[in-house]
## 1
Amino acid sequence: MTGAGMPAGATAALATGASSPENVERAPVFDAARLALSRDLTLAFRKRGQLIQPLAFFALVTMLFPLAVSPELSRLRAIAPGVLWVAALLASLLALEFLFRDDAYDGTLEQYALSGQSLTWLLFAKTVAHWLLTGLPLALMAPFAAMALGVSAAAVPGIVLVMVVGTVALSLIGAIGAALTLGMKRSGALLALLTLPLSLPVLIYGARATELAIGGSSFGAPLELLAALAVLAVTLAPLAAAAAVRISLE
Amino acid sequence: MRWTWFHRLASPPYLYALAARLTPWFAWPAALLILGGLYAGLVLAPPDYQQGEGFRIIYVHVPSAWMSLMVYVTMGVAAAVGLIWRMKIAHAVAASCAPIGASFTVVALVTGALYGKPMWGTWWEWDPRLTSELILLFLYLGFMGLRAGFDDTQRADRSGALLAIVGMVNVPIIHYSVIWWNSLHQAPSVMRFGKPAMPPAMLVPLLVLLLGFTLFFAAVLLVRVRAEILQRERATRWIGETLRA
């Protein structure tokens, strides 16, 4: 673990009263969450190679379709929303394995659970960091993939907006699956089996909103449903992920 | 002490004996209801004026589809009881539910495909009900896969229970998003259940079979729970004494 020095420092900072264990004065939840967030971002930028992997995977999956289906842009345009969303779903699934794995190995998650801070908030912060590092870049890259599939540039703002909202929900749903499979040796296929069925509503509304955005029509209705899913995921998924992490630490 | 019956259920020897005593009380009525319902449905009920004799497959398809959902809810409730009150036996019940529910789901999918051939002309149509049923099968497989992934029974129990609860929250969301998805693409659907037009000669066998399948599930669940208890408690003394007796 290359960044082992860093987590120890950040974890100590989470319980600010470390110098006087009796009268522990805890940092407010938001400070702790912010520290966890900045720690994850710092660690990620020290291993930049990992950051590019999901993006490269996304581009690669998108490239498979012209090769497998047809290079005609008119046909590709018709399937573009589905291609973008399937590629995004698979890329975010691939990235999920890194969400908690390193922190489970080096004991950081255990320290989080023992820190007295709300584990729910800390895991939410971790998931937000994960989204900033994978979901947001995917959403920003999607327009390029879309244009390569023959979509007009006018649809770009719509595609980015839908992708931003959808990847939030995907990251949070995925966090539950990643927390449940913590400590398993070969969790890849199982993670997909757990996460994909739960992600289907996101896929349905996301692909529909993207389709409408590409067609130039109003995509408010599916986007609102997608946003509702994202809000529900923000509210409930961190609780479930925290419960799963606690179970894995028992 | 109104809750003693509930606490006594948490004791493996008590539940093991109770399950053994209760099994015939569910198994025999289930057998009678299923045989009677099948006779009434397959022989006595008149053929449908549109679908002919082919409609009779609903007498297996609808109860299986109904049970696939009901077993999932049973599993989720048992899992929640196990997680909240730390009742190990409830986890054993949840674990026993999964293979039964997955089997009902497979039966519903296969009979749905068989039904689709004469009605739609294809084995598979992306009908919202069949699609939801397929997703439900993956939810069951995920639950069983997660449990199988852990060597430690307690970890498997608690992680699986959490997944079952998450799944229970998601089942309605998934179901309605699939219906919404289907309404966009307007696949021509011949199948229309739930219309009140069904005459009693067709409806009564269906209700009889629904009840029969439910009791059958209860009987199979009791047998599976006993097997699960035997496996979990294999190191205890009471198992040895019970089996020798």
Note: The two ends of chain B are 32 Å apart (CA to CA).
## 2
Amino acid sequence: MSIASSKGQTRATGYVVAKGTSWRRYLGQAVLYAVLIFISILFLIPFYLIVRNGLMTQAEITAPDWIWLPKGLHFENLDKLFNDPLASMAVGLRNSLLIAVTQVFGQMLFASMAGYGIARIPYKYRNIVFYIFLVTLMIPGAVTFVPKYVIVSYLGMVNTLQGIIVPDLFNVFAVFLFRQFYLNFPRELEEAGRVDGLNYWGIYWRLLLPNSRTILISLGVLTFINSWNSFLWPLVIGHDSSTWTVQIVLSTFLTAQTINLPALFMGAAVGIFPLLVVFLVLQRYIVQGVARSGITG
Amino acid sequence: MSSDAYGNKGSRARGVTRRRFVRSAALVVGGSALLAACGDNTVAPASSTTAASGTTATTAAAGGTATTAAAAASSGGPITLSHWYHQYGEDGTQQAALKYAADYTKANPNVTIKVEWIPGDYDSKLNAALLTPEGPDIYEGHLTNSMVQAGQVAPLDDLFTDDIKKDFDKVALARNTVDGKIYGVQMINDPQLFYYRKSLLDKAGLKPPTTMDELINASKALNSGKVKGLYMGNDGGIGLMAGNLVYAAGAKFLDDNNKPAFNTDAVAAAWAQGKTLASSNTLLVGAPTDWWDPSAFDQNLAAMTWNGLWAMPTITKTFADDFGVFPFPAAGPSGKPVIYSGGWAEFVNPKSKNVQAAKDYVNWLWLKSADKQQDWSLSYGFHIPPRISTANGAAALKSGNAATVVDLTNKYGYGDLTIWNAAMGTALTDAFTNVVQKNADPKAELAAATTKVQAELDKVLKK
Amino acid sequence: MASSKIVPASPKITSDADLNAKGRRKRQLQTTLAFWGFVGPMMLGLIIFAYVPIIWGLILSFFDARNTITPTKFVGVDNYASIIGDDQFRNSIVTILIFALFIVPITVFFSLWLAVMVNTVRYARAFFRSVFFLPTACSYVVASLVWRITLFNGLPYGFANNLIYFFGLDPIIWIGTANPPYYWVVLVTVRLWLQVGFYMILYLAGLQDIPKELYEAAYVDGARPGWATFRRITFPLLRNTTIAVLLLNLIAAFQAFDEFYNILGAKSGLALLARPPLVYLYNIAFTNQNYGAGAAGGFILVSIIIVITLVQGKLLGFGRSENQ
């Protein structure tokens, strides 16, 4: 995969160096960098403000004067966040992590299986099944939200982590992408596997999954983000503070009477941090995964 | 898609990945098992929350528990009641709720109260839960006719003896009555009104406004660049004025026969005044927090603000006695000053398996235990206890601005109507928004809103 | 096999054709079983958590269902009629069309522009890519708060007002007035910030699939790197990516909820300034607890989304490559 991508990069950039006098080229690059750096600063300002607000007092945040650098950094906000006995950020982080990891693996497993089945098993009605799946993408969650909640309550999963996890294990968009991906999978390889005596499961498990690393990672990261940031469903399912996710803990700083702005922003910073780490470590796979997903044609 | 990526070599190399995947899959299975275990714990009656609250309990339970203990004993066996609160913003409220629950269990050992402290959008969560058989046993909220029709509230008439009725705020009682039956016990009254900075008004040579015109003038006079004249929320006061102006003009939402009664010339004129105020360029708009948080006022961003009684402790801390209060001023010749009195009421879910035990608990907490009602109303934010005797016994409400608010509320207070639902409220707010933001004619907008409200009334009353 | 040789010919002898048919049926059965083995778990999950709720909602939309989701009183198409007849619902459709008109072209333009720039620089490419992609990790709730409270508050000293003060302009009330509707700046920039990085990645992936030889051939023909090659080579070859970005973007825009809900609210006087259909329906279902009408409105919205998707697909030929 690394071979393919590095090749792709030289391919795509080659043309810039192709022509033009050198001073022109350097000027062009300099302008380009200037623009990119300017936009980067704009893009990073909100992150900076989240951290800045998290380290200031309520009075400083709502103060009429704009403050670039707070005078004193109130790191005790962080202490308070983790030592609040009523809404523990630590419990929230643990729950969010457990939910996100389970959903990533569950979604990837179910979606890749279904995507493979639809793409490669010559079942008569597979396209009909596929279209029936796709219908669900058109329906906004708000329409099905309440019946879904009632079903989960009949399954006895309200106020449990399963109730947050299980209904979101079935991602049709991921099925769509896996199907596209497996449609393009070289048939020769599959046939070779069959000659070696592999059945459908063997081909899926031993040939396709190991070769789906990029798409698994890129989709996995996006699933992780979605799961981590999802709000309304965990809010409605989890009554007890032991089932609260990071987002729910965050929302406790925003009540009907007051807003605890420093805690809110400090919590947001803490909540975003794990995602940034996941992102930075895995983002090159996301580019490759998107490239191979078939979404771009 | 280049096929070199799928070469044999690569495939073997990625065997590692597969093993990793297997391990991960095992993790999923293990994880679900773990979750199942966790789930069992949370469903079990003795939850961690109540266990924790048990340890923090210190004081002895208040009186009036003899009957409840007997009632619970007769039903036999341990009972767990889930009790939902929306998330109060004031520090200490959650600990207080847990302590009340622990105290009750101390006096009634076979009843455990599981306090659920609900953050975020409480209404959505409560509404969803009430649709299921596993909703809360006891919950706080705001009564509507639809809740009664849908069987979401149990009648509580037997809790209200004549003595208690006499000793209960009339507005609060009416607010929880549908077709002559009482369904909710008001926990707290939350009057909303204007706060102003005394020193700033004095400097401008003004008295607290008593009419809309005076309010508009005051807002203009106090507006001085850095300090805006008035803060009524980030929507420019639209949400607050739409309803309050109806009452301030001497009209009301619905008449006694449940017909729309807000489409009058006086209201149209009041709305026109509201538009004048909203477009006077003297209102603070776009503050970091909305009107119900006193930050903007505390930060001196506006000379006057709208807020609830609950904010008074915070405002007192900032300005000591350099502030005063006044009701929503009268609008027009037929108008009168008004104070909207909100708050929360406690309900018992008729789908509960222990309706009687739940009623006993509500009775104990909100009707019998005056000390707890006082604690709840005055130890955190300020609220008025609906029990008149409790309110009278509250020292904090006896002096200064707080006493003024209590007096004004008794004089000018009005509460929500159970038949007036959110759809009707939206229709009215939308109409006033059109008047303010789109220069629509108040008369026409009031007529349009009347049609919508009537259509909604037809549907609600049809059953 | 061995036993069949010993057993004498029986009347049950099967013809070749029969054997084939049997084998085919057996194979078919195997195929069917294998297919459902793979697709079954997904199907089961969707039945429980998607199809039953959808059908439930569809049924509810023909019933009067207030404070309950048990269909009790059949009212025919009343719910649909009252939603379509409500001028506020029609306004919400207009609102979302305006929003889509802003956000879709702007997102396409910026994501493509950023992708081309990132793809053109020689050093620190991964750095820029990361920076533009990072906001994807932020939730709408948090971003909306930052935008509303810190960036675009209406105080003279808010960030945006500080910025325009440099240019000698008066402070602006960004959120809260209909004339001029500055709130669109707030709503569009927050979504742009959150999603442009993701679409940029799609374009980056597309750019990397363009063979370098095409550019070389163009240079041989005397073309200059820059606008000419972009217009004649890069953009046409990114057609499929652009279609995907347009489509994903449009569907997402039509389902917009979070930033509107968190910046303008659902019930305040601000909400009416720009109330998209989902906020309108949220009010009906969750605040008014009129689940029948809420479901009906949802399905009206669904049909609008489907129509627009189909029209756009027809115009741009989405899915053509899939059929090849």
Note: Chain B has two domains: 48-190+342-414, 191-341+420-462.
